[in-house]
Structure formats: C-alpha cells, structure tokens
Amino acid sequence: MRHQLDTLDSGTRVVTEVVPSVRSVALGFWVGTGSALEADAHAGLSHLVEHMLFRGSERYGSLELDQLFDALGGDLNAGTGKDSTSVHARVLDERLPEAFDAMADMVWRPRMDAEDLEAERRVVLEEIAMYEDDPQDKVFDVLGEAVFGTHPLGRAIIGAPEVIDNVGPGDLAAFHSARYRPGQVVIAAAGSVDHDALVALAQAADPGRAEPATGAAAALAGQEPPPQQAGRLRFVVKPTEQVHVCVGGPGIDRHDERRFSLRVLDAVLGGTSSSRLFQEVREERGLAYAVHSFQATFHHSGQFGVYLGTRPDNLAESLRVVADELERFRAQPLPDDELQRAKEHVKGRVVLSLESTMARMSRLGSALLGEVPLLELDELLERIDAVSADDVAALAGKLLAPEQLSAVGIGADEDAFRAAVAPLSPALAGAV
C-alpha cells in the first residue's frame, strides 16, 4: 500500500499506488466541491456540473467521449457527495494516456453549451423526480434534514428543482471555474501505473493557475459546524406499501480517532447478517426484509442511524425491538466474542476491498482531499484491533443517547408513526 505523491506548481496533487499483477488502472479526478459547500442559492449545482462534464469539452463531444471509452473497453463514471465530486474510470494500462487526456479535458475545460444545459437540466429534474418516488432512498435525506436542520449538511446532494430550473450557462460556468481549481483537485490512480508518467500527463493537461493545494478541507474549515439540537420527528405522507423509517443523530467527524470504534459499533448493531438488529428484527421475528445501521463521517460532524422498511401493521413492534436493542447496547457490556467477531469482520472488509483498484484509488483521492492520514494496511488493522469494549460502549453512549435521536418516516399514517416511535424516546412523539 505504499503510495507516491507529487504536487504540481499549480497546486494539483497527483497520487498513485502500484498494484502488482494487474493490467488495469483506476484513475480518478477528485474535486473539492459538493452539497455541503453550496449556499442555498446554489443547492445542486455541484451535481449539475458533474452531469455537464459528460456533455462534452473543448476537444471532445458527448458522443465522442462515449465512443472513446467504449473503444477502450473501460468504464467512465462520476459521483457527487457532501464535500467532494469525483470523475473516475478504469482502463487497460496501455490506454491510460488516452483516458487521461479525455478526462482532463472534461474536468478542466467542459463546454457548458446552452443547448446542452437545457437537455441536461431536464435529465437532472427527471432524476430528482425519480428520487422523490423512491421512499427507500428519500428517507435518508429526510433524516439529514431532521438531524442537521438548515445547515448545508441537511440538504440533499441531488439539488433543489428551483435552482436547477433557473441556472444559466454563464452562472454554471462561473460556479465550475470557482470550484474546479488546481488547489482543489487530486488526481489519483491505482493499479499498473507509472507515477512519473502520470505526473507528466497531469503537467501537460494542467490549466496552469497556480494556487495552494487546499482541497475541500480549507473551505469546510471556515464553515460553521452544525448546531447541537434535540432530536426531531419528520414524516412524509405518501401512499406506500411499507413504512420506511430512519432513526439516528449526529455522529463523529472524519478526523476523530474514534472512527475505528465507530466501524466496530456499526458492525455489531446492524452492519452484518449476524448483527443484533438483523437477527432480532428480521431473522427472529420476520418483521422486515431490510434493516441495517449506517454511518457517515464529514469534516465537522457525522451521522449514525438505523434504517428499516416494514408493513404498517409491523411498525410498532419493529420500532419497539429497535428501541430495546439500542437500550441494550447502551446499558450492557459488549461480550468479548461479539467484539472480536465484529473486529474481524471490519478487518476482512478492509482487506477485501483493497483487492479492487477502484477502491484503492478512491481511498487515495478521498483521503488526500479530506486531509485524512493515509495509513498503511498494517497500521490500519492495528487501529481496528486496538478497539476495546469500553471504547465501543463510550461511543454508543454518545451516539445512541435517546435525547439526540431523530426519527423520520415515509408512509401513509403519521399518527401511527408518532405512536410507534415513543419507545425510542418519549420526547419524540411530541417533537416537531
């Protein structure tokens, strides 16, 4: 897992990791822009820009990009997150220069044509409409709104329809120019890659605007963290067959040393098929098909929670079981066998994921952009091994405290939902 890192004169960082015995390269451009870095008036522009990159650049049309990567036998994709955007591909090592040339032109010099914007605007609005029709995804954004309120972390990454509908090509180009700056970009690659050759490619394509290598972290550091607040209740009335529920609250930030304990806690509570929630809710009682815990870490904060989808007649019992398991986690010591099994699971997932060049590339890019230390594998496994039952218990006491838990749902009957969440925290039934 040894990596090499160079910073160009412009501030762009280039990081690589050689993976022996493979003939492919995973390549990514990681950019310091995302929904948590947007003002309300720009909500969704990072996501829209990501779409527009595929509409063509100064030298490549949209169809040409599609045809090029089809001919390379490679995969080209992108994604927008809370505080980063990535454009990534996987190609044969001998075709890396061609892939890099096209991706660099997309990232640095997108065309932002007015006609293309009108077409992509409609695509994104359809994506938002599709997302609104999917309660299993939508409920996570409802939880974000409940936990983080009006802070940018509480907004959906996908964007606000009124912003997408009204932005013009000039404004979008200006947004791109302000965010896609050399100091905000990390170029990461993993696989059969020559570091010096990639640096040469990056230098040749670099836009040449010299500035410090800051990434998203500098902008986020100047942002106010989310305010502390009591748990909230949110419900979206929608005619669904199931009630989709999320229960959760603020978590820890990505720099917190307890992040290793967090992964163990997640595995014990609901992150595996032998986890407490999966066994008690699904296997023992058959109350839900999908039930799991989840966690995310951001610059200033994080989020931890539980999701389940269940029929209305099972809702009250399902949430009672969830409440019991959360209370058991807070009140009772974690048995050693359960702790060890969770740690072995976490370590196994880490090692298995690193067999993927795309996962290795993503680790490099996201860590550098977020200013998270790039630990070697042995050190990473040692940190997980060092997690104790007391560490997990202390973190559970903070993250699962009833007074900070919010509960959100999507379904047909809000009154039934309010009554069902009472075991989680009596204050929630009357919360707003």
Total of DSSP H or I helical runs spanning 4+ residues: 17
Instruction: Report on the biggest sheet.
Output: 6 strands, mixed
Q: How would you write the strand order of the largest sheet? A: 1-2-6-3-5-4
Count of structural domains? 2
Distance between the termini: 48 Å
The average pLDDT value, as a whole number, equals 94
Number of DSSP strands? 11
- CATH T-level topology of the largest domain: Cytochrome Bc1 Complex, Chain A, domain 1
Describe this structure in words.
With 432 residues, this protein is of the alpha+beta class. The protein has two domains: 3-221, 2-Layer Sandwich (Cytochrome Bc1 Complex, Chain A, domain 1); 233-430, Metalloenzyme, LuxS/M16 peptidase-like (Cytochrome Bc1 Complex, Chain A, domain 1). It has helices at residues 45-53, 62-72, 96-108, 114-132, 135-148, 161-166, 169-179, 195-205, 215-221, 259-271, 276-284, 315-331, 336-353, 357-370, 377-385, 389-399, 414-420, and strands at 3-7, 13-18, 24-31, 75-80, 85-92, 185-191, 233-237, 243-250, 290-297, 302-310, 406-411. A hairpin with a 5-residue loop joins strand 1 (3-7) and strand 2. The longest helix has 19 residues, at 114-132.
